[in-house]
Amino acid sequence: MRYREIRENLKNKRVGIAGAGGLGSNCAVALARSGVGTLVICDFDMVESVNLNRQAYFSSQVGMLKTEALKENIRNIDPEINVITHEERLTPENIPLFYRNCDAIVEALDEADMKVMLLQTVLECLPGIPLIIGSGIAGWGNTDALRCRRVDDLLYVCGDESTEADDDNPPVAPRVGMVANMQANTVLELILAKPAKNL
Predict the structure, then answer these.
(1) Is 65 inside a domain boundary?
(2) Biggest CA-to-CA distance, the chain
(3) 171: closest CA among 77, 55, 60?
(4) SS3 state of residue 53
(5) 196 belongs to a structural domain
(6) 3-state SS assignment for residue 174
(7) Which CATH number fits the domain that encloses residue 134?
(8) Which residue, of 6, 126, 174, 182, is most buried by count of CB atoms within 10 Å of its CB?
(9) Range with lowest mean pLDDT among 41-45, 72-76, 161-165, 181-185
(10) Which residues contact 124 (CB under 8 A, 6 or more apart)?
(11) What domain range includes position 161?
């Protein structure tokens, strides 16, 4: 498939991103640069200076809502991309509303209980929509441990699936970026293989 065909196909696709931190912001940028037509981004947090070491924001955006800052950055990449934002904490009630027309959903949340809740809700309420999870991104080096594992036709896990972030092993830009791009790459692999939905 030639690049022009890829862009033509992707402009009719919609991808949901749950969380706009290190994984979510970098994944959104990769999908925007690839030409995905609509991104649905959910996050209620604000950009802080401590985020700038691994998230796709700039010092001038500190204090902005992450969703608005990311929308601004994507607009600067490609003003034709439709960015839909929700500044709310995700719940079993709003996840089906926010992501119901998506071709794929990227999980980019920090808290383990939120990851589980998103997974359960998508499986129960959004059947047929693939979910690409990020797990194991902390630290640096050990690149060979990073992978994308297909659990089944609708569930994929990107990362090393074991490295937890803490004060002595924080998430650092290279590994965060690699996993975010693995998630974006998996999204493209999935959505380019199927026809566009009629919204």
Answers:
(1) yes
(2) 48
(3) 55
(4) helix
(5) no
(6) helix
(7) 3.40.50.720
(8) 182
(9) 161-165
(10) none
(11) 3-191
